[in-house]
């Protein structure tokens, strides 16, 4: 009986990958360890020392608000900043990043007030007003400090690198002093003034609001049509007729002092001839309405029939005088006996309403300017809490948002109510309390936009000179600056930096004295802004030459947007950082917020913008595109993501998204990012495994590398150029998806697949294997560095898995310098062609595998049909290597119809043919030569030589 020769085990002769880099990232467990290591080796300080003398890169941090745990929008913002900072650092800059916090303002004050109001709270229900201001401010400071510390640790957990020990906060004493000093600059250059003007006012929060603090939501508003009887007019037939107005703010009727008309508008004098059932107009009543709006007016107020006696131009209303529609109201006690003049207004249109506009000077911008121009006084009909004052006779104490019913009733009693109802429209709300706001004229502090300092004109020029990513941000902020009114910077609250100025009581003039400002600055630096509220502050700051009784000490605080807008003044220069900063980066809503206030503040105080470039990102929505809210249960919290997936997955999500648009996140999307991460990690693991034992002496010069390796180097040069362009212009959209595609498509599914045979089975010193490992070395160095900004934890692990060290870090290294000689466009074009042709072969192999003819592509030796001019692209052996088959037959004969054709490649097709011979027990290729060796009958000649030489 003849026994068959035993099969030998050649596994020990194959160079299988070896690495300590695990397949599973286990990021939630491992990432905190890397943070501890970076802290232990003093990574941030070492980067600063290492970067000394390099060109500075300054991404100035827009301060988040210190009043709660981080949400996903915070994570998006800080991760994007961190990627840009790390990339700038690795590209050779000194990227010194100073994170900061916004600590003053109403949201914190509101929370502390709630604690004081709570009967079960630590203050036992003591109202805020009963608390000394310094004690209240101390509570606010403590609240902000707590959340600042919480947020700092949460940002660090996301892998955000920065000078966390040297962070800035607007409530730091030095910051408060600098903010007050910035206000002083506007005082001294004349742009700061106090004036009476309607501003957005929150009755809930009892303070003025800036445009940036207002958001628009749908709101159900009461409406009314009311007539103002004409007492005097150029034409007699107008006397007794009623000039009709329409308003969505019935509560402003008691504050009315005039009517506005358009000079070129055609008005109609109409008589009511019939009314619908329930309509308020009376038969015979005469109305003045814009001719173009008669139809809409008649429908709205229920006119069944009417006649027009004549049509006339608005100029005919010049000099006309009307009575207030509440003049005869018995409950007003004669409070509305004043005349109501008709004034020409260039803002009056026929787009809606009646073509006549009622003017309440205290409650509208156009109203205020038109009436003031005609010497009409501004009544104070509404108090700071939104209730009527004694200047609104008959309505005292009623809240304006509950006034429509009483106003309707009063007008109906005087027979001047022509129509009433409700509409739903976009209406301004406080973005903090989410409650509707009103326009209310109060004395406020303003910064002039168009005085001698020309802040508006200079700001518009600065916008034109700024680099915007995306560029449409330029038009957005530009249109806002062009149309905005003077900047109202005063707030009637307690927690913030005071507008530290004095007003002489006798003259009403604001005191402009640099010596006084210097005293304030010194005190604020030593004691903080609390110094303003301490007993004897006025005498202390005014000095011995002035009597504090002669001056009003202003107690308004400054708008927090002014505070955050002036951060450049106390964050950059004091730390030796260049001004303007290279980049400001925030959400797109900051065109009307921080970008806007920073621009105006810097232009006004130093004459130029505080930034060279602005990058904006979108908002984060859930997977279906809905806004996140706790009530919908669709909130994705960054803390939960890092706990389940790890920070690198969250960071990868940011950089795989189009950040210029709104982003989406949720369970499925995070699962997809985890899968993308797995592919990148596997790429790194494969590289590390096949670089085991690699020595510099193995490297081959580029001139000795095969075309395939030189093509990979070309691809690296392309990606390097892509990275460096992103660093230069801050546009990172698509960069990391491109790197992932390179890992998945160019490497894993192509280059690695082809070179596995050589790396595993060639002799250790074979030129082909050395060439491959030369390129793998470049791939590892490039990918570790390029991935470091977005996946700092994984990149560090991949770097140290190859270069173990107690104190080294991938983050201490720069992006590799790619030699210009790696770029080879002609070679790239050729290999694009080869890959297109290869698809014909892989297609026919897939069919054969599906039909059960083969299991592995190495069991095949297909026929590849090529046009004659393409026969020299590669040898048959080269094509077999490229297609991972055991053989290949080239033919320039026309392919049969049964062949598998390559799309878009005329004359290119492949036919299946099995490989002939036996399977090599070491490399698994099927070759006729297998079995010829007496010593190693199960090996091919290549493998026999390797094993024999071992």
Automatic annotation (TrEMBL):
Top-rank taxon, per record: Bacteria
Binding site for ATP: 630
Sorted UniProt keywords: Aminoacyl-tRNA synthetase, ATP-binding, Cytoplasm, Ligase, Metal-binding, Nucleotide-binding, Protein biosynthesis, Zinc
Domain Aminoacyl-tRNA synthetase class Ia: 34-665
Residue ranges annotated as motif 'KMSKS' region: 627-631
Recorded catalytic activity of this chain's protein: tRNA(Ile) + L-isoleucine + ATP = L-isoleucyl-tRNA(Ile) + AMP + diphosphate
Renumbered ranges of motif 'HIGH' region: 64-74
GO molecular function per UniProt: aminoacyl-tRNA deacylase activity; ATP binding; isoleucine-tRNA ligase activity; tRNA binding; zinc ion binding
UniProt cross-references to PANTHER family, sorted A to Z: ISOLEUCINE--TRNA LIGASE, MITOCHONDRIAL (PTHR42765:SF1), SOLEUCYL-TRNA SYNTHETASE (PTHR42765)
Quaternary assembly: Monomer.
Record remark: domains: IleRS has two distinct active sites: one for aminoacylation and one for editing. The misactivated valine is translocated from the active site to the editing site, which sterically excludes the correctly activated isoleucine. The single editing site contains two valyl binding pockets, one specific for each substrate (Val-AMP or Val-tRNA(Ile)).
Protein name: Isoleucine--tRNA ligase
Organism field: Teichococcus oryzae
Organism placement in taxonomy: Bacteria, Pseudomonadati, Pseudomonadota, Alphaproteobacteria, Acetobacterales
Gene: ileS
């Amino acid at each position: 009986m003849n026994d068959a020769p035993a099969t030998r085990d050649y596994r020990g002769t194959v160079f299988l990958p070896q690495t300590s880099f695990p397949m599973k990232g286990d990021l939630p467990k491992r990432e905190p360890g890397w943070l501890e290591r970076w802290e232990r080796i003093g990574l941030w300080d070492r980067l600063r020392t290492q970067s000394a003398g390099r060109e500075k890169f300054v991404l100035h941090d827009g301060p988040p608000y210190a009043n709660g745990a981080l949400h996903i929008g915070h994570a998006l913002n800080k991760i994007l900043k961190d990627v840009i900072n790390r990339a700038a650092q690795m590209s050779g800059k000194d990227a010194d990043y100073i994170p900061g916090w916004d600590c003053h303002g109403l949201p914190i004050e509101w929370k502390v007030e709630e604690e004081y109001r709570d009967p079960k709270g630590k203050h036992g229900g003591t109202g805020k007003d009963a608390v000394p201001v310094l004690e209240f401010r101390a509570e606010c400071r403590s609240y902000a400090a707590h959340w600042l510390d919480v947020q700092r640790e949460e940002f660090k957990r996301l892998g955000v690198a920065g000078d966390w020990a040297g962070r800035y906060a607007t409530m730091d004493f030095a910051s408060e002093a600098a903010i007050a000093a910035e206000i002083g600059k506007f005082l001294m250059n004349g742009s700061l003034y106090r004036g009476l003007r309607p501003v957005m006012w929150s009755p809930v929060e009892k303070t003025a609001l800036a445009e940036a603090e207002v958001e628009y939501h749908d709101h159900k508003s009461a409406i009314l049509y009311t007539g103002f009887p004409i007492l005097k007019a150029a034409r007699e037939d107008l006397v007794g007729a009623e000039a009709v107005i329409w308003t969505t703010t019935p509560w402003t009727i008691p504050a009315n002092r005039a009517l506005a008309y358009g000079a070129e508008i055609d008005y109609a004098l109409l008589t009511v001839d019939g009314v619908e059932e329930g309509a308020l107009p009376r038969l015979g009543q005469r109305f003045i309405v814009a001719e173009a709006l008669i139809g809409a007016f008649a429908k709205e107020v229920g006119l069944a029939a009417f006649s027009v006696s004549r049509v006339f131009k608005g100029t005919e209303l010049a000099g006309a005088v009307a009575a207030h529609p509440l003049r005869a109201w018995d409950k007003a006690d004669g409070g509305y006996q004043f005349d109501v003049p008709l004034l020409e207004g260039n803002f009056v249109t026929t787009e809606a309403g009646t073509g006549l506009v009622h003017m309440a000077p205290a409650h509208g911008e156009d109203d205020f300017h038109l009436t003031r121009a005609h010497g009409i006084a501004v009544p104070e009909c509404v108090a700071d809490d939104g209730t009527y004052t004694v200047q609104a006779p008959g309505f005292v104490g009623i809240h304006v948002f509950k006034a429509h019913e009483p106003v309707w009733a009063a007008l109906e009693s005087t027979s001047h109510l022509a129509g009433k109802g409700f509409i739903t429209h976009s209406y301004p709300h406080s973005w903090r309390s989410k409650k509707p706001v009103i326009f209310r004229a109060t004395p406020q502090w303003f910064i002039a936009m168009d005085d001698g300092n020309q802040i508006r004109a200079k700001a518009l020029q600065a916008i034109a000179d700024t680099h915007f990513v995306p560029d449409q941000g330029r038009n957005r902020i530009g249109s806002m600056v062009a149309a905005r009114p003077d900047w109202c910077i005063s707030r009637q609250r307690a927690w913030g930096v005071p507008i530290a100025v004095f007003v002489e009581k006798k003259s009403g003039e604001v005191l402009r004295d640099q010596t006084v400002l210097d005293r304030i600055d010194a005190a604020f630096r030593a004691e903080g802004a609390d110094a303003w509220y301490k007993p004897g502050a006025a005498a202390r700051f005014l000095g011995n030459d002035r009597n504090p009784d002669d001056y009003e000490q202003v107690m308004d605080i400054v708008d927090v947007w002014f505070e955050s807008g002036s951060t450049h003044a106390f964050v950059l220069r004091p730390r030796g950082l260049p001004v303007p900063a290279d980049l400001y980066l925030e959400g797109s809503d900051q065109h009307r917020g921080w970008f806007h206030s920073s621009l105006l503040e810097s232009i006004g105080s130093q004459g130029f913008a505080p930034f060279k470039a602005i990058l904006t990102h979108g908002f984060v929505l859930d997977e279906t595109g809905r806004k996140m809210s706790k009530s919908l249960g669709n909130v994705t919290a960054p803390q939960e993501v890092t706990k389940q997936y790890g920070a690198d997955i969250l960071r990868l999500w940011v950089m795989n998204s189009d950040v210029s648009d709104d982003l989406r996140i949720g369970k499925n999307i995070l699962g997809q990012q985890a899968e993308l991460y797995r592919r990148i990690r596997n790429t790194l693991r494969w590289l590390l495994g096949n670089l085991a034992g690699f020595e510099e002496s193995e490297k081959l010069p580029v001139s000795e590398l095969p075309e395939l390796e030189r093509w990979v180097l070309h691809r690296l040069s392309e990606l390097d150029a892509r990275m460096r362009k992103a660093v230069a212009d801050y546009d990172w959209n698509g960069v990391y998806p491109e790197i992932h595609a390179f890992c998945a498509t160019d490497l894993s599914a192509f280059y690695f697949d082809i070179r596995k045979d050589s790396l595993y089975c060639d002799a250790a010193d074979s030129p082909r294997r050395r060439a491959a490992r030369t390129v793998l070395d470049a791939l590892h160095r490039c990918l570790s560095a390029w991935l470091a900004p977005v996946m700092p934890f994984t990149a560090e692990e991949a770097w140290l898995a190859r270069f173990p060290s107690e104190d080294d870090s991938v983050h201490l290294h720069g992006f590799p310098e790619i030699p210009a000689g790696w770029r080879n466009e002609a070679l790239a074009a050729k290999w694009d062609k080869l890959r297109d042709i290869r698809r014909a072969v892989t297609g026919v192999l897939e069919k054969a595998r599906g039909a059960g003819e083969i299991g592995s592509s190495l069991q095949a030796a297909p026929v590849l049909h090529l046009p004659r001019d393409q026969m020299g692209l590669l040898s048959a052996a080269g094509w077999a290597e490229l297609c991972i088959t055991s053989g290949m037959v080239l033919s320039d004969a026309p392919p049969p119809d049964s062949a598998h054709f390559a799309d878009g490649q005329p004359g290119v097709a492949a036919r299946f043919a099995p490989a002939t011979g036996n399977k090599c027990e070491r490399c698994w290729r099927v070759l006729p030569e297998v079995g010829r060796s007496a010593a190693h009958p199960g090996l091919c000649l290549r493998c026999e030589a390797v094993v024999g030489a071992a």
